[in-house]
Amino acid sequence: MQNPVMTNPEIHLHKNDLPDGLVFQDAIAVDCEAMGLSHVRDRLCLVQLSGGDGVCHLVQIEIGQTEAPNLKRLFEDKAIVKIFHFARFDVMSLKHNLGIHTSPVFCTKIASKLVRTYTDHHGYKHVCRELAGVDISKEQQSSDWGQDELTEEQLVYAATDVLYLHEVRAKLIEMLAREGRTDLAQKCFDFLHTRTDLDILGWAEHDIFAHK
């Protein structure tokens, strides 16, 4: 039986940074929305996060903003794992736009590719359907995240992108251990900052390990 999608999650919208005094435990789920997929052209618009308790905090990033001290403090806290799906983009975006060196990281997309080798479907929608038992909508993915007032549909979509990551991560941790690939996954997660440095410097589409 599938779990119901959280159509009315508890959402808190903040401007420019997290408020002071928020406390999170050992892991938080994180996602980012931008104007597009080019870190050179497209600015970061929204950072969403959840502590796995059904509550989502959304932080709108304004044009030209280069710092978010509370986000930086949280995302660089070594005692708290940051869970992403396709961490490569989000880690790079946070680094490039806000100077945040996110660590430690768990990427559910990398983990999925390492252990769900029976499928080619590793998108968040497919992973959530199998591992969390929810069917989520990606309809708002390509909407305008740069507008001053986000729609109710955008807010719910943004929240949904982080509300199930704790459950997905737990299932993937079990699968990684079962297949003997936990250490390999961790090495991939550790490499993400080198990978995103290469992306930012212009080697996004070039395999520097290739012979040619």
Please give a structural write-up.
- The chain has helices spanning about 70-75, 85-100, 110-115, 125-130, 150-165, 165-180, 180-200; strands at about 10-15, 25-35, 45-50, 55-60, 80-85, 105.
- With about 210 residues, it is α/β, with parallel strands linked by helices.
- The protein has one domain: 2-Layer Sandwich (Nucleotidyltransferase, domain 5), CATH 3.30.420.
Taking the alpha carbons of the first and last residues, their distance comes to 50 Å
Reported for the largest beta sheet, the result is: 6 strands, mixed
- CATH fold-level assignment: Nucleotidyltransferase, domain 5
Strand content: 15-25%
Mean pLDDT: 93
User: Which word captures the global form?
Assistant: globular
Low-confidence stretches: none
Tell me, what is the CATH class? Alpha Beta
Domain count, please report it.
1
Q: Give the class from helix and strand content and strand pairing.
A: alpha/beta
Helix tally? 7
Taking all Cα atoms into account, the compactness measure Rg is 17 Å
How are the strands ordered across the major sheet?
A: 1-4-3-2-5-6
| Strand segment tally | 6
The CATH architecture name reads 2-Layer Sandwich
Order of helices and strands: EEEEHEHEHHHHH
